[in-house]
Design brief:
This protein is α+β, with helices and mostly antiparallel strands. The chain is 56% helix and 10% strand. It has a four-stranded mixed β-sheet, sandwiched between helices.
């Protein structure tokens, strides 16, 4: 499939939220491009339904080429969730192309995590105890049953996830005597993120001993909302004012 500047947003960036999209930046005059193209097409066809391959003519689409820093071709960039997650430049042997494409595919743990049921989530964590998405989903399930220690143990294997840290901080705060954040957590569970964030941030100034834990909860919520959510900028400003 050929893409252009007019359909790049839909065909590549938007589509990459459903599956990886590999873009072959090429030109008709480029001999290495003609060498790499058939290899990419053959290997991508073997992974049909798991990723998509598109081609973009750099001469016909100079603005896109400049925006993605294309200085030499062939240049191959893989997009996932709207961002470049892997890339290489120059013609590559089939074995290298295979490794490149395989690295874009979800692992068995990721496929299990996507199912979302408790049995699948536990199976995913047996394969990868540090899988953040599976751990967060399973921790929420067991937390919902009142098994707070089990939830904390599950989250304890995850590193580098603000969302996991935030959920663990919430559970610890629920066990803190003399602190009542039930209104904030009820709003959060009901999907009213704005109300939950406001209540949590308002609780920070007097809660000197627990302010860092509340901050972790807020950061975790913002991390899950993502940078595109309009709540994030406002909440970050309010959080900074409450902390400093």
């Amino acid at each position: 499939m050929d893409v252009t500047e007019s359909n790049f947003q839909a065909a590549v960036l938007d589509r990459s939220h459903s599956m990886p999209v590999v873009v072959d930046f090429w030109a008709d005059w480029c001999a290495p491009c003609r060498q790499l193209g058939p290899v990419l097409e053959r290997e991508a066809s073997k992974r049909s339904g798991q990723l998509e391959l598109v081609k973009l003519d750099v001469d016909a689409n100079p603005t896109l080429s400049r925006s993605y820093g294309i200085r030499g071709i062939p240049a191959v960039k893989a997009f996932h969730k709207g961002r470049v997650v892997a890339e290489f430049v120059g013609a590559q042997p089939a074995s290298a192309v295979e490794r490149f494409l395989d690295a874009l595919l979800p692992s068995k743990a990721e496929l299990l995590a996507e199912k979302g049921d408790e049995e699948s989530l536990r199976a995913a964590l047996e394969l990868d105890p540090g899988h953040a998405d599976a751990a967060i989903r399973l921790a929420r399930i067991v937390h919902g049953r009142g098994q707070k220690e089990d939830a904390l143990e599950i989250l304890g294997h995850v590193h580098g996830s603000y969302a996991a840290e935030g959920l663990a901080a919430r559970i610890r705060l629920e066990r803190t005597e003399g602190l009542d954040l039930s209104t904030a957590f009820a709003a959060l569970d009901a999907g009213d993120n704005e109300r939950a964030l406001d209540a949590l941030i308002e609780a920070i100034p007097p809660a000197r001993s627990t302010r860092d834990e509340i901050r972790r909860v807020v950061i975790g919520i913002l991390d899950e909302l993502g940078l595109d959510d309009p709540l994030v900028t406002t909440a970050r400003t309010k959080l900074a004012s409450a902390l400093y």
